[in-house]
Write a structure and sequence with these properties.
Blueprint lengths: L1 E4 L5 E4 L3 E5 L17 E9 L4 E7 L3 E8 L1 E6 L4 E5 L2 E6 L4 E7 L6 E8 L9 E6 L5 E7 L7 E2 L5 E7 L4 E3 L7 E8 L2 E3 L2 E3 L4 E5 L5 E4 L5 E8 L1
Parallel strand pairs: 13-14
Antiparallel strand pairs: 1-20, 2-3, 3-4, 4-11, 5-10, 6-9, 6-11, 7-8, 7-10, 9-12, 13-15, 15-22, 16-21, 17-20, 17-22, 18-19, 18-21
Length: about 230
């Protein structure tokens, strides 16, 4: 079964300095039909005004993945990590028993756009962790996060795998999903055909009891997406 989560049905919040679209219930947006999917709890598409950002705040017991789409993030946390994430970079912050951090737009002139993704960990507590990497721009699927950190991926504290998907116009690929697992596909940009379903930027697709679905770039521009393989 494949269920489309249309972009235009997502939650939306505009705070002046922040414009955010929520694939799942978050903050003041609440929809009991969209509380997450398996262990995937949050996908927020955030655009942050120049010089603005999220002041220091706390998290615990959550795997927080950030993916910079344009601009740059200036990050600082209570574990002593200070970093800048440029466009194309990924960051995985394991909150563990508790961590405080801030995220600001690293530019005074350009907007920042990034995806913030929360995955519920398999076990609670533990020491916080921080990982950051650019995984390149190879077409096809690139493993971003896995339970064992294989193939140079981040180590995520859950039986989940996250892939970057890049496709040239007309290119197709079979997704590594089995009927025993769940999948969630989030399209960032481009036009995508998932089996017989057409997807536009911001759309998501829930995949349940599906074996090796095929996706095709159905447009004239490159496709950029994220695939989540979930328990």
């Amino acid at each position: 079964m494949i269920t489309l989560r249309p972009a235009n049905e997502r939650g939306h919040a505009s705070h002046g300095w922040l414009d955010s679209f929520h694939s799942f219930s978050f903050a003041e947006y609440y929809d009991p039909n969209h509380m997450g999917f398996s262990t995937l709890r949050v996908i927020n598409d955030d655009t942050v005004a120049p010089g603005a950002g999220f002041a220091p705040h706390g998290h615990r017991d959550m795997e927080i993945l950030s993916y910079v789409l344009s601009g740059s993030i200036r990050h600082q946390d209570s574990e002593g990590n200070i970093a800048t994430l440029p466009a194309g970079e990924f960051q995985l912050m394991s909150a563990g028993k508790g961590i405080r951090h801030s995220e600001y737009n690293g530019s005074r002139t350009e907007a920042l756009r990034f995806l913030q993704i929360w995955i519920i960990p398999a076990t609670l507590g533990g020491e916080p962790g921080y990982q950051q990497k650019h995984f390149g721009s190879r077409e096809g699927l690139t493993l971003i996060a896995s339970p064992d950190g294989r193939d140079g991926s981040f180590t995520v504290r859950q039986d989940a795998r996250v892939y970057q998907l890049l496709l040239a116009p007309g290119q197709s690929i079979v997704l590594p999903l089995s009927a025993a697992r769940k999948g969630y596909l989030h399209l960032v940009e481009g036009a995508l055909s998932l089996e017989a379903m057409e997807m536009s930027p911001g759309d998501g697709a829930k995949l349940e009891r599906v074996n090796s679905p095929k996706v095709t770039n159905a447009g004239k521009e490159p496709v950029r997406a994220l695939l989540f393989e979930l328990p």
